[in-house]
Structures are given as C-alpha cells and as structure tokens.
Recover the amino acids of this structure.
C-alpha cells in the first residue's frame, strides 16, 4: 500500500494507473508520427504535449469513474474488458465534445484514430498482463501475524475473503501457550527460536501484532529488533484500515482518535472544500437543469398533478443541527401513513415507477445541490440520516456521533465502497467507512469519491 495524500492506494493499482497514463500520453504522439510517416509529412511536435496531456487526463479520469482502479474490481476478465470498452466509448464522446469547445486541441481524424486504437490495444494488453501477474506470490507483501486468537482470525478471514489483496500470510505465531487457537492450526509457526530468525527464514516484510491480550508475553525487544532491521510493524487496527479502507469499530479506541494524525481539518482545507462545493454546485446546476426539469415533469405527470414534485425531510447535519434535505419525490405521498419513520428497502413497494428510475440514476439527489449552496451539506461526506434513526443508532453503535463532526454529503466514501443498506448492521458497516473518510480527508480523496460515484451511477451499484 502507498499512502497518497493521506489515502491508502494499493501499489498494484497505482502501478497499473501509471502504466496506463503513460500509454495515453504516448498514444497521441504515436498516432501523429505514424500518420506523418504514411503520408510523407514532416513530423512536428508543436502543441502536441498539451493535446496528449488532455487526452491522458480525460481517459484516466473516465477509467477511474468506470471503477477500473478500485480495490475490489477483480470481477473477471469479461467484466473488466466491458468496462474498458465502455470507458473508451465515453472517452471518445468527451474528447469529441472538447474539440468543439476548444478547437485548438483538435487532431486530424487519422492521427487521433491511430492513437485511440493503439491506446485501446495497449490498455487491453496491460490489463491482461496485470491480471496474470498481480497475484503472483513474489509481488505480494509477506506478513507474519503475532497471535492466534480472535483478532488473528479476523486477518485470516480477510486474506481468504478478498482475491485482490496485496499481502500473503506466511504464518501465525503463538506467543503464549495458554492462548486460545482460533486460526487454522496448519498456519501456526513453531516457536522456540528468536522472532528475528522466523522473520529472516520466511522473508517477512511486515509483522502485524494481533494478540488478544498484550499483557502476557509481549516481545517488545524482539519486535523492536525486527523494526530496526527494516520490517514494517503494524497493529491490527492500522492493518485493517490500510487494507480495507475502513476503520474497524472493535479495534478503535478514543486515544487512537485523539493522538492519530487524522480526525482534523485545517482552516485552509475547510475553506477550499467550501469554495469547491459552491463552484461545483453552480456548474452542476447549469449542466443538469434540463434533466431536473424533465424529472419534475415526469413526477408531475405520473401523479396527475396531485402530488408535490419535491420532498423535504428532516436530517441531522454537522454538530447535530437538524436541516431539511431537498429531493425529488420518489415515493407515494402516503409512504409513511402511520407517521413512523421507516428504512427504505430494496424493491420498496412505496416507490413509484418514475421514482424507481430517478433513484437508480441518482437523479432524485440533484435538488440537494441547493442544500450544498446553503452550506448545510457538502458534495462529499457521510450521508445524513433522519433524527429518529440517529437517536437509535447513537445509542447502539459506538462512535456514531463522530460522523456529525463534518458536513454530510450528497455522496460519500461509504456509498462507493458498500452496497445500499437500510438496517442497523448496515449503518454500523457504513460508519466504519465514514470514519476512514473523516480521519483521512483530503481533496484527493474527495476527487476519487466523485469520480467513482459516476461508476456507481453508470452500473446501478447500490440502487434501492
């Protein structure tokens, strides 16, 4: 894992993104060179670097939006190539649009066609090579786990539950004979030799301290010796945060929140986030007002003009302040006729036909841009919940109130990492992603969330 602007990025995916960025940068000059050679023209580089850079930025952004650099994109080669193909088609559309907006960026059809086709072929080749070699044992981080109990079993489950992880467990060390063994006994490494010898013989890159009770036989001198020799030392909470993009509640302590390098926003960061929210909201309103108008007409026609187009509902925002969120109405007017707040459910019978479509495409969220302009929400942040749900969730889920220390968002890290859920257990799982976002906030992470939200919309991920 590489920590890039406070956000953990898997090294294989970062490497793949850099390779593809180089492919896109080289594709346009290559296309012009081949075209010039075929036609007998003189090859010139005037303005070529800018055109190549624009092409690369557009294509990498679209590939990110298609979910092709996500941690869990290992869905198979067919699905991957489908996303690549759709990404290139979207790229063709965006580049063509840019040529009309900025004619100085225009390339001849022959030059662009050769470069575009070359980029597609090389990206496909790079992707197949990545699938073949990224899971090779020699490219994975070799991890030794200290402990064999409940906490160690969580690491064992993580390794077996995700094919795209970048680590390989070389074994587990039982440091105390009375410790309860809850992992596969075949994975245990026999002790009796110094920890440094185990590290050297198994070529360990990282040691994860996952003991259920550190008060019994914690080998601090041996661990320090390994650290001084270049081995990375991690505790369970940091390991899970880095590998999963979430902070486990059962491994979180108030002291770790206070003394960590996260869970704070500098004044300059807050100002820049607010400026971005205002500017992006105005731009998006200008671009989407025809869509919003059509959605309003469709809702009005379906209801026969007898129901309101917009739906306002109380939600809990920053510092527990209650505000009214604005959405397009997607449910029947009598959706909560008994006056009791209900979780939305998959295939909810209260959702109208138009409502089902605008929910799937997230069009129902567009009026929240006005909430962003008013400062009640941000583009990216934890999704706001209703006061009735918040009161119950704060009672049963530890640290739930922490999510109310920042502005809620139209989209968020939890929304792109976790499928739609409407239960207390889902709220607990999403909170772990929200805590990761709050702790590791950066403009870079916001941009990643916004780009990957497009993937959620395009592929209907998490629609309810």
């Amino acid at each position: 894992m590489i920590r890039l602007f406070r956000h953990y990025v898997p090294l294989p995916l970062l490497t793949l993104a850099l390779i593809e960025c180089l492919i896109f940068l080289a594709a346009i000059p290559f296309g012009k060179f081949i075209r010039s050679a075929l036609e007998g023209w003189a090859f010139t580089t005037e303005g070529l670097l800018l055109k190549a850079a624009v092409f690369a930025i557009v294509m990498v952004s679209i590939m990110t939006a298609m979910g092709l650099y996500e941690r869990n994109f290992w869905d198979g080669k067919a699905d991957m190539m489908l996303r690549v193909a759709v990404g290139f088609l979207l790229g063709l559309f965006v580049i063509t649009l840019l040529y009309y907006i900025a004619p100085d960026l225009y390339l001849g059809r022959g030059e662009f066609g050769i470069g575009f086709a070359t980029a597609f072929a090389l990206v496909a080749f790079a992707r197949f090579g990545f699938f073949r070699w990224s899971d090779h044992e020699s490219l994975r981080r070799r991890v030794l786990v200290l402990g064999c109990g409940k906490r160690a079993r969580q690491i064992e489950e993580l390794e077996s539950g995700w094919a795209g992880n970048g680590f390989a467990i070389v074994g587990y060390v039982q440091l105390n004979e009375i410790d309860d063994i809850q992992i596969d006994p075949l994975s245990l490494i026999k002790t009796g030799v110094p920890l440094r010898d185990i590290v050297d013989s198994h070529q360990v890159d990282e040691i994860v301290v996952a003991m259920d009770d550190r008060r019994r036989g914690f080998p601090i001198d041996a661990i320090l010796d390994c650290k001084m020799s270049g081995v990375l030392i991690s505790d369970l909470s940091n390991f899970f945060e880095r590998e999963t993009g979430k902070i486990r509640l059962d491994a979180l302590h108030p002291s770790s929140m206070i003394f960590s390098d996260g869970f704070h926003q500098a004044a300059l960061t807050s100002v820049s986030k607010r400026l971005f929210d205002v500017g992006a909201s105005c731009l998006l309103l200008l671009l989407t007002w025809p869509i919003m108008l059509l959605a309003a007409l469709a809702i009005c026609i379906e209801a026969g003009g007898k129901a309101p187009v917009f739906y306002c509902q109380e939600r809990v925002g920053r510092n527990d302040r209650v505000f009214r969120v604005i959405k397009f109405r997607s449910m029947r007017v009598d959706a909560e006729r008994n006056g009791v707040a209900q979780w939305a459910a998959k295939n909810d019978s209260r959702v109208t036909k138009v409502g089902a479509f605008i929910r799937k495409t997230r069009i129902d969220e567009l009026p929240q841009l006005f909430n962003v302009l008013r400062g009640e929400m941000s583009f990216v942040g934890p999704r706001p919940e209703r006061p009735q749900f918040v009161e119950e969730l704060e009672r049963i889920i530890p640290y739930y109130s922490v999510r109310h220390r920042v502005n809620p968002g139209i989209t968020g890290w939890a929304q792109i990492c976790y499928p739609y859920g409407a239960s207390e257990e889902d709220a607990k799982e999403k909170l772990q992603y929200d805590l990761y976002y709050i702790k590791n906030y950066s403009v870079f992470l916001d941009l990643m969330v916004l780009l990957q939200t497009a993937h959620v919309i395009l592929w209907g991920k998490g629609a309810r």
Notes: The radius of gyration is 26 Å. The chain has a mean pLDDT of 87. Residues 137-244 form a domain with the Rossmann fold fold (CATH 3.40.50.720). Residues 92 and 116 are 8 Å apart (CA to CA).
